[in-house]
Design goal:
The protein is α/β, with parallel strands linked by helices. The protein has 8 helices and 10 strands.
Amino acid sequence: MSETEWLSVGEGDDARRIATLSRDGKGALVVWLGGFKSDMASTKAAYLDAWAARNSRPFLRFDYSGHGVSEGRFEDGTIGRWLEESLAVIRRNAKSRPLLVGSSMGGWIALLAARRLAKETPELRPAGLVLIAPAVDFTQELMWKELSPAARREIEEKGVYLRPSAYSPEPYPITRSLIEEGQRHLLLGGTIHTGCPVHVLQGMRDPDVPWRHALTVMEHISGDESVITLIKDGDHRLSREEDLARLVAAIEGFDAA
């Protein structure tokens, strides 16, 4: 694993430095796309790095702005902003078609990135996608629609709502810009073209991304080989040893294809 490298994204007052960690190896570059308020030191990201080290596989992880050690305020983050950073990191590091592994919000970003790469940088269109509890369109479907009228008013009038978190003692700031900008990237209103095989891992005891939401995502993926693994006792994180083994098996399954 290399030392932390920094990539500047954006210009002027919008410029921010993104922290990345990469590991050299043979085969398709595996790129980790983390979740909302997560970082590249998470259990799954660290597990995949150890797997990559044992198997001499190239692996790349990074922190979105406002996450982990990257620059920027979390409150300034939007789906488009984090997508821009993801594309910049992939394009700088990938030498051939990468394998994108997206967790929760990272699953949404992986699908958006696949579409953009196929259109703008076809030589880097993904070789496959592994999506863990993919929170596609979550700003609209899993946030805005689930918020109370009082929380919605707070966002509309004050620009931010502090949402309690089950994973942190600190609440998550849900901003008006996050909700409104997210509408530009919604995917569930039409067909999702990935241009590559997809494997979804979804826990059926996930309180944040219901398993039926994952089925809806699968229904919209068209024209590409897609598989979903439903884990009956799995939660949102899917970070138990058996869950991590399933994650690695999903990645290695693309090698055997």
